[in-house]
């Protein structure tokens, strides 16, 4: 190997290196200890660095979790604010709905009250129209031949007729009021004619039965049983009295009903007068003593009067005054007087007249006590 000339600096370095190699054994041991310490320190530093890195990762992870939690919380807060805003909107809508509901309820209440008012007004109008337009329905009911046999329906018809007539009469300024009053008068006439015809038919039927019995006993008229003049009348009276009772109860509504009732009672009284007074004639032909004649005539008068009253009550309701019955009873008294007066004129003895008066008084007291 050829000699190489080195620079001065390199030579100094080689010398220092050589001197270092000479001191190497002592310095190597020291270096090893230092190196081991360095290695331990380095390992410790690495461990601490790894721990710090791990802790940093954990902190980073926690920080990331906190950031995520913050984001979730922020999102929840935003959602809560949105929900609160919607709740406020819903609450506002609810208040508006309540306001509209109250308004609708008040409006419905007013509408119902207005409807009730209109219904009441319509009922008033319907009542007025019914009063003005009830002629056809009443006339149709009067056409029913069985109406007289249904007193409840008959009484309702009369009340409806008079209520409508009273309404029309109170509204005299109506344009159709005069024609309506004429129509009501016509309907009253129909009712009265219907009742009188029904009574007349019943009386004719009863009279026909009496005449048949009298014809069968024509040969011996003086022995006619007084009961035959009443039996047929009492048998037929139940078919007539309900209608006559209705007429009596409604007679205060219009004078025409009262006049019809009087005429019906008069027709019965006239028919009763038309029957032959066979027993009175037989009393005229007999010539008993005055007291006996007074007793027989008075007894027959009281018995006949009682029978006539019961016959009248079978057809009509008792009332005061009842002029037809009173006139019939006066007729009976007149017949009794016609029997007694000739006998009383023939007796000039005051004693006989006094005895007859006492007997008449006793008969009357007995009759009052028995009745």
Which helices and strands appear, and what pairs or packs with what?
Layout: H1 8-22, H2 24-133, H3 135-142, H4 151-170, H5 177-216, H6 228-236, H7 241-249, H8 255-273, H9 278-285, H10 290-315, H11 323-346, H12 350-370
Helix pairs in contact: 2-4, 3-5, 4-5, 4-7, 5-6, 5-8, 8-11, 9-11, 10-11, 10-12
Describe this structure in words.
The protein has helices at 8-22, 24-133, 135-142, 151-170, 177-216, 228-236, 241-249, 255-273, 278-285, 290-315, 323-346, 350-370. The protein has 371 residues and is an all-alpha fold. The protein has a domain at 279-371. The longest helix is centred in the first third of the chain and has 110 residues, at 24-133. The protein has 12 helices and no strands. Helix 5 packs antiparallel against helix 6.
């Amino acid at each position: 190997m050829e000699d190489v000339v080195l620079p001065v600096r390199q030579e100094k370095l080689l010398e220092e290196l050589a001197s270092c190699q000479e001191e190497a054994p002592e310095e190597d041991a020291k270096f090893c200890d230092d190196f081991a310490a360095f290695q331990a320190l380095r390992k410790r530093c690495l461990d601490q660095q790894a721990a710090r890195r791990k802790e940093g990762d954990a902190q980073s992870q926690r920080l990331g979790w906190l950031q995520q939690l913050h984001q979730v919380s922020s999102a929840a807060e935003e959602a809560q604010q949105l929900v609160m805003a919607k709740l406020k909107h819903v609450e506002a809508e609810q208040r508006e709905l309540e306001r509209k509901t109250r308004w609708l309820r008040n409006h419905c209440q007013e509408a119902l009250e207005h409807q009730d008012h209109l219904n009441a007004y319509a009922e008033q109008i319907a009542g007025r129209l019914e009063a003005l337009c009830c002629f056809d329905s009443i006339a149709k009911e009067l056409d029913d031949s069985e109406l007289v046999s249904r007193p409840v329906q008959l009484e309702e018809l009369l009340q409806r007729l008079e209520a409508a007539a009273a309404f029309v009469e109170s509204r005299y300024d109506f344009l159709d009021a005069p024609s309506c009053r004429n129509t009501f008068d016509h309907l009253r006439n129909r009712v009265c004619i219907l009742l009188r015809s029904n009574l007349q038919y019943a009386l004719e039927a009863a009279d026909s039965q009496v005449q048949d019995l009298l014809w069968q006993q024509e040969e011996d008229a003086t022995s006619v049983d007084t009961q035959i003049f009443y039996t047929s009348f009492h048998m037929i009276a139940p078919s007539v009295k309900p209608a006559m009772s209705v007429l009596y109860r409604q007679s205060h509504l219009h004078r025409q009903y009262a006049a019809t009732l009087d005429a019906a009672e008069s027709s019965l009284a006239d028919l009763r007068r038309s029957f032959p007074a066979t027993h009175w004639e037989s009393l005229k032909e007999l010539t008993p003593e005055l007291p006996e004649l007074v007793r027989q005539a008075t007894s027959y008068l009281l018995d006949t009067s009682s029978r006539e009253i019961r016959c009248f009550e079978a057809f009509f309701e008792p009332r005061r005054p009842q002029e037809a019955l009173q006139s019939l009873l006066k007729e009976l008294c007149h017949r009794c007087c016609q029997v007694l007066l000739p006998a009383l004129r023939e007796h000039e003895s005051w004693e006989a007249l006094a005895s007859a008066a006492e007997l008449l008084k006793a008969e009357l007291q007995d009759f009052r006590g028995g009745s």
